[in-house]
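WARN retry 2 of 3 for item q-0093 after timeout on previous attempt; input resubmitted unchanged.
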Amino acid sequence: MSLENLIEEQSKFDSYLKNSDYTFIGPVNQNLFEPFFKNVNMIAPMRGFPRKIKDFMSNRDAVLKVLSQLPNEEELRIYVIIDRSDDILFHSTIEEYCERFNIQYP
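OK item q-0093 returned
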């Protein structure tokens, strides 16, 4: 799926999120996660201290900038983040999230 299609899908799905859960688009390749997160963290504006993962990964402008630096052939997907009070990245896919919370999503 193209980045444009993923952005559209992400926008459609946001209304189904519970509480303060959020989504971001990122690389499927787990080896790219750490550098991807670090780059988004460096680009996103500060929102507070201490800085939490949500503070930078929910910043779509910063995420899109870093995505544009990945090779064009890099496979991307939408990650759904279940926001918890601790700073652990507990993520799933849209399908898993819908199943977990019994959400009927087209």
